Amino acid sequence: MAAKQSAGLLLYKKTPDGYQVLLGHPGGPFWARRDDGVWSIPKGEFTEGEEPLKAARREFREEMGSDAPEGPVMELDSAKMSSGKVVYSWALEADLDTMTFRSNSFKMEWPPKSGQEQEFPELDRVGWFTIAAARQKLVKGQVPLLERLTELLHAPSSGEQTSLL
């Protein structure tokens, strides 16, 4: 059985204090009281034969409630999660008003073994974080994607380097 695959977009923007990235907090009762180490880039699973970047844009729309901004993307490679799932990601420089955020939802039995089904948002909140804060917030398996973005943004263009911290 092949490992599950996800694709996502990591939005970033330059602010007077350095770069920030957009992350989402998972919805549902398992994550309600957890913060550090559980946030994620907006992403979702795709099937064999589906173009990963298209899937990343689709998942962004589903999880954020709006289309991904237009613009050139930078491939961030892939990262393997502790579950074995492989996450493919692209970075996109854009600003997004988090007040327009509206995630799709999922249903699950809650409380466990109650026979009752409740609906929860896939993401219950989103936020812009500095690179340093994002390292703490992100689920461990996605930190390499953030590090790859940092490398790409540090890459000299016209001889200058930009500080991300």
What does the model show?
This protein has 165 residues and is α+β, with helices and mostly antiparallel strands. Helices cover 19% and strands 35% of the residues. It has helices spanning 52-64, 131-137, 143-154, and strands at 5-15, 18-26, 43-45, 73-80, 86-93, 105-109, 117-121, 123-130. Strands 1, 2, 3, 4, 5 and 8 form a 6-stranded mixed sheet that branches. Strands 6-7 form a two-stranded antiparallel ribbon. A hairpin with a 7-residue loop joins strand 6 (105-109) and strand 7 (117-121). The termini are far apart. Residues 158-165 have low confidence and may be disordered.
Layout of secondary structure:
Layout: E1 5-15, E2 18-26, E3 43-45, H1 52-64, E4 73-80, E5 86-93, E6 105-109, E7 117-121, E8 123-130, H2 131-137, H3 143-154
Parallel strand pairs: 1-5
Antiparallel strand pairs: 1-2, 1-3, 2-8, 4-5, 6-7
Describe the oligomeric state of these chains in a short phrase: single chain
Rg, Å, rounded: 16 Å
- Content-based structural category: alpha+beta
How many distinct beta strands? 8
Helical segment count: 3
Brief account:
With 165 residues, the chain is an alpha+beta fold.
Structural key phrases:
alpha+beta; two-stranded antiparallel sheet; 19% helix; 6-stranded mixed β-sheet
